[in-house]
């Protein structure tokens, strides 16, 4: 149970004012969570975590060196002996407890997620945090039912799972990774991304509070070097990575020839396909949600729009009008639709792509947005007049930038949609169920949404084809990455 009673009583205020940060406890300095304790990093090095909406420092975060990773892996290895033997029902109780504690502290988590990462509070409050709790609930339920998940097979946990997560859905990605690992009897060393460590560290506090045996989950902070130390550690048995395709390729090379089990969830360039028989107004909302949700920092974002030629003019007109109404600004304001770009580095990447798009002859459209003074801001952006060979059509931008193309026939749009190195997500908008089923067979994407986009559920597997990675997270499939068969 949380010691802070105020947090239980907090309710959401739906006024126009920004969400209050009262009662939100943020320390000046955060340590590493190793073997059930918060410990100082061996090299005494810390880095700053910044509020991307005003560039102000929020807190200092410990940087884990390879010595610290050695300690975390040793703790996880030691804990594995008894944790893996604990009956599933008992493991499940701890996971349920973690889920409930996240729910109890939901407001605190949501505010910190938006402060540290820049995403609109509406999204952290209604999507990220509830879904993170749901993942723990869902996998807690599997802990004592593994014989039903894998009938007639004897399954064993893999061992120590090294988990490296990105900055776009920090708490949710931690939940995606930790919950199935614990349910199957593994122990964990998890590293959040360097720009968004805070909610993972808050999760460490909850894990401590839940009474989970020491060393079962270790949370270490740092950047790429710290991540590489986990990947290359000889006593880590499994790597689960979500992040860029570039780093994913490095990890695949680094683990080649070792006994490490590997799952990779990498980049994407999702096709969002609007047929002439679609409900146009709903489709326009769907386009906005597909690309502008979380500032477009979404690996499965619908960043390529394909509109059937006969409705292209009306769809684009309605889309432009809708974009005029989007509010870009303070992530803690409940009216905000598009928050701050997560880091100055990512903002530069996005701006570079916008320049590339212009140089390639794309026709840009951006509404007139008023941005707050400081911080990392980017207007929602459309590119018309682009074609398959353009870099902004082929490469992942990871920002609020949509490349629009038109098509005439199903065959044409399938060919265009599949013509990227990625294969993570797609969306199809049509009144005809048969068309949706036809396309789900033909689109090379791990997830195909029908008349919706960016909908997530713990029961549903998620993952990619081609350069979007391999392995599935979520659902029954998500257990597979954490077990081995006798
Ligand atoms: P982005 O480029 O969008 O920041 P990354 O793929 O670099 O995404 O980051 C995803 C996660 O991978 C982060 O936690 C980051 O610290 C980590 N990371 C970066 N480089 C490496 C590496 N060489 N080995 C392991 N992890 C890494």
3D structure, described in words:
The structure is a single chain. Helix content is 40%, strand content 17%. The protein is an alpha/beta fold and 486 residues long. The protein has 2 domains: 16-266 and 468-485, Aldehyde Dehydrogenase, Chain A, domain 1, CATH 3.40.605.10; 271-458, Aldehyde Dehydrogenase, Chain A, domain 2 (3-Layer(aba) Sandwich). It is built from 17 helices and 20 strands. Strand 17, helix 16 (433-442) and strand 18 form a beta-alpha-beta unit. It is globular. The two termini are 39 Å apart. Adenosine-5'-diphosphate binds next to helix 9 and helix 10.
SSE layout and pairings?
Layout: H1 5-9, E1 29-30, E2 32-34, E3 37-39, E4 46-51, E5 56-62, H2 66-83, H3 88-104, H4 106-117, H5 121-142, H6 146-149, E6 155-157, E7 160-164, H7 170-183, E8 187-191, H8 198-210, E9 217-219, H9 224-231, E10 238-242, H10 245-255, E11 261-265, E12 271-274, H11 280-292, E13 304-308, H12 309-324, H13 344-359, E14 363-365, E15 381-384, H14 391-394, E16 401-407, H15 410-418, E17 425-429, H16 433-442, E18 447-450, E19 469-470, H17 477-480, E20 483-485
Parallel strand pairs: 1-5, 7-8, 7-10, 8-9, 10-11, 12-13, 12-17, 13-16, 15-16, 17-18
Antiparallel strand pairs: 2-3, 4-5, 6-20, 11-19, 14-15
Helix pairs in contact: 3-5, 3-8, 4-5, 5-7, 11-12
The site of adenosine-5'-diphosphate has 16 residues, from α9 and α10.
